[in-house]
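Sequence in, structure out.
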Amino acid sequence: MPLELDRPTADFSLRPALDDAEFLRAVNAGAAAVQAGTDLLALGEMGIGNTTAAAAIAAALFGGGAARWCGLGTGVDPAGLARKRAAVDAALARHAGTLGDPLLVAAALGGRELTALLGATVAARHLGVPVLLDGFVGTAAVAPLGAAGLAHCRAAHLSAESAHGELLAELGLKPLLALDLRLGEASGAALAILVARAAVACHAGMASFADAGVDAAT
């Protein structure tokens, strides 16, 4: 199912980024990408400007405004950061009436790629597939599901984006790695896969005291 990334979303400071039909198509596109029997799903994103949408979603869900959630992203200068914060605060004011509904927040402030990540995470939950989340943007994309809806997810790493740690704390997620990575594209999740494999191997292959013939009393 195509994601229509060549079609721009609306300016979220003026109206919802996605209308209902566009939102549902993006959710379904993400959900359709998850196959039953998958051992582990690593989710990431790529693009420029998506930390602005991520900051807007986080601010809408957890409060604090743009000042709390807007970071440097790919390295904007002070003037760029000020414009970014102004855009997020304008979007929050424009959509103030929808901030109580997480899915309306996702549609109003996210984009097709973030919504597809949301759909993929929901599908993984239904299929019993564990999920590794990547950085700030990927975490913000699924944040509308809340901590309970992300019980099948783990945070792969703590990125260098300033608000990522706060967002993980709001969702009750502890990162497996903290390497100051700024690059997205699921690079942190790819590294964390090795940690997950090692943990599974230890859990499945470690002998118990009984197996090893060790007296537990000693």
